[in-house]
Amino acid sequence: MENDRFPLDLSHGRRHEDCKALLWQIGFMGQGxxxxxxxxxxxxxxxxxxxxxxxxxxxHPLDFTPASEGPGDSAPGLHGTRVIREILLSxxxxxxxxxxxxxxxxxxxxxxxxxxxxxxxxxxxxxVNIGSAIYGGECSVxxxxxxxxxxxxxxxxxxxxxxxxGGDAYTLNExxxxxxxxxxxxxxxxxxxxxxxxxxxxxxxxxxERSLATGGGLSVTTAQFSGxxxxxxxxxxxxxxxxxxxxxxxxxxxxxxxxxxNLGAGHHCFFLATLxxxxxxxxxxxxxxxKIYENxxxxxxxxxxxxxxxxxxxxxxxxxxxxxxxxxxxxxxxxEEAAAAIAPWAGPLDRSLVEHVWAYCLESLGQIVPAAxxxxxxxxxxxxxxxxx
Length: 389
Ligand SMILES: [Zn+2]
Prior knowledge:
Elements: H1 15-25, E1 34-39, H2 44-49, E2 59-63, H3 79-90, E3 95-100, H4 110-122, E4 127-130, E5 134-135, H5 146-158, E6 161-165, H6 169-176, E7 184-185, E8 193-195, H7 204-213, H8 218-235, H9 241-250, H10 270-282, H11 292-295, E9 303-304, E10 307-308, H12 309-321, H13 328-342, H14 348-364, H15 371-385
Helix pairs in contact: 1-10, 1-14, 3-8, 4-5, 6-7, 8-10, 9-10, 10-12, 12-13, 13-14
Bound molecules: zinc ion.
C-alpha cells in the first residue's frame, strides 16, 4: 500500500503561486470576467514590452480624470499599468477596463471613486481593483461613508466584488508596532475586500519590510488577490457576493484572529476556493460518501481541462465537506487517500492537484516548513517578474 503513494514534497515553496496555474490547467484563465482597475491608467506599450501579459486579453483604456488627461498612464512608477500586469499574470484572459481616476495632479475623492463604481456596475463589471486607501475619519464600520456604502450596495444588487488595498505598507508597519492598524477606507466595507499584507502570517512587520525590500508592495499583493478572484469568478460565474467571500475565507489557512471582521486574514488558495464554489454551484454530488478508493479506482474517462473530472469532483467534495468547516485533519486524510487511489493511473496534472490540496491541509495543521521559508522563495519569484510597488 505504502508503495502506491507518491511522495509529497513538503518543501515546495511555490505552492501558493501554483494555485492559479493549476486553475489554468483545468480550464480557467479569467475568460468571461470583466475586471475594472481604478488607478493611474494603462500604458499598453509598456505592458507588451514587459512580459507579454497583454497578449490574451481585451483592454478598454478609459479616462475618468476631471481634466480629461487621456487614458494613458503618466504616473512616475506606472502604478496602474503594473497593477494591471499583476492581475493578468494571475488571470491572463480577464477583460480589463482601466479607469484612470488618478491624474497628474488629481487624486480622486470618495465621490469620484463612487462615480467610477457606478459606471462599472452599469458596464457589467464583476470585479473592481482599487489600488489606494483613504485614511482618516468620515468612515467607520458603524457609519460607512459614501464610497463604502456604494461598494456594499453594488455588491448586494449585482454581485460586483470590490477589492482594495487595506492601507499602505509603511503606515501599517509603523502602526503595527503599536498594535493597532489605522482606520482606513474602503476597508470598512462589509462586502468588499481589503488586502492587508503580502501574506499575513506571523510577524507581519518583518514580512512587510521584506515586501518593501523586494519591491512588492500591497498594491501588488492586492492585484494578485484580484487576479485570483477573477479566476474564481471565471470558473463559477453564478456565485453571489456572499458565496464569493465565503469560498475565499473558508478555504484560507486559519491564522491568528483577524484584527477586525472586515479584513481577510489567512493564506488564500484560489484553487481550493474555486473547488469549494464549484461544489456549492453543483448543489449535490455524485460522491455522497467517503468511498474515495472506489470513486477513484480508475480514470473516469471524463475531463476537466487536462485533469480527470472525477478527481476534480472528489477534491471539490473534500473542500466543501471538510475544509470549509475547518476540519483540516479530515481533509488531509481524505486527500491522502485520494493520492493513494489515483497513484496507479494518475497523470502529472492529476497528481499535482491532489498534492496541492493535501499539502495545503498539512500546512494548515502546522505540519510543514515555516511560512517564512515560503515567503522568501515566493518573494524572490515575485521579484523576478515584477518590480512594482
Ligand atoms: Zn469608507
